[in-house]
Amino acid sequence: MKYYIIAGEASGDLHGSNLVKEILKLDPAADIRCWGGELMEEAGAKLIKHYRSLAFMGFIEVIKNLRTILKNLSFCKNDISAFNPDAIILVDYPGFNLRIAKWAKPAGYKVIYYISPQVWAWKENRVKEIKKFVDKMLVILPFEKEFYAKWEYPVEYIGHPLVNVVESFLDQQVKTNNPDKPIVALLPGSRKQEILKKLPVMLRVAADFPGYQFIVAMAPGIEESFYSTILTSYANVSSISGKTYHLLSKSKAALVTSGTATLETALFNVPQIVCYKGSTVSYEIAKRVIRVKYISLVNLIMDKEVVKELIQHHFTARNLEIELKKILFDEKVISTIKRDYALLKVKLAVQENASAKAAASIISFVRKPI
Known about the structure:
By secondary structure, this protein is an alpha/beta fold. The chain has two domains: 2-159 and 352-367, Rossmann fold, CATH 3.40.50; 166-348, 3-Layer(aba) Sandwich (Rossmann fold). It is built from 17 helices and 13 strands.
């Protein structure tokens, strides 16, 4: 069977890579082309376009890069037509992927969505497009099944793949000595524009905690020189590349950009502060259209404030310092967070490996006649 998978971000590359591995276990002769990153390529897919060239964040940034986005869409459609896959698998990344679905379904392709767009947060009307152009939706958040039921659109809940990914990592970890100084992990995001907005604020806090080492998790595909110019002059700050999970497994606390990393940090049982800052225009637009109470997956899934969110003008060095002291030194705060993390994991876990369950469901669906 031939599969065409489109992932437009680092998290999509991670989940897509595990999906590719599981598809190849069940269908060793599978021919898989993808948009994604090194992880999907290493898993066995032929990489056509790297997510680095697709990563535009915020309303203004998208408008400024509209010509590039349209060229990518045209290239993608032509590449799919030439490859003629048995199924197109879309991984999150809705601005691009829903446009592909809108073209692919009428063109006669089976369209599967793995990891739902966050239509429950904003643009709820997109569900109408999903119902029309997506043949099968696999969701990874427990509340998404209920959300889609409201729209009379049946979806399949497979559990969150990160639970298995983190558990597998921890199972393989060799116990090592504790570091000389306790670690605070800094996860400022995967795109240059978001890193430039968040990392300098995170770094200003480091000087107030000389007894701790602050370590920046560098994003895959971003050159080390980009970080070194920002990290200059911070004595207790260093960086690592390709070892984010190792870093989280050793960390006492973390400052984390909103997104998948907030959930990963929680699964490692690390108290965290969630940080977000966008351009003023993008933030003002988002504030008016987003319908959810929280921006972090941890709080959204638990439907309460488990971890502190510092958003836009609240994201300052002073506020970070205040909140970091709480998650480093206040035992009551720390124990409450970790208790909620345990409940979160129960909500997300399923008996079967989520990626394996997704692969089995996809293959079964593709082999079924229309």
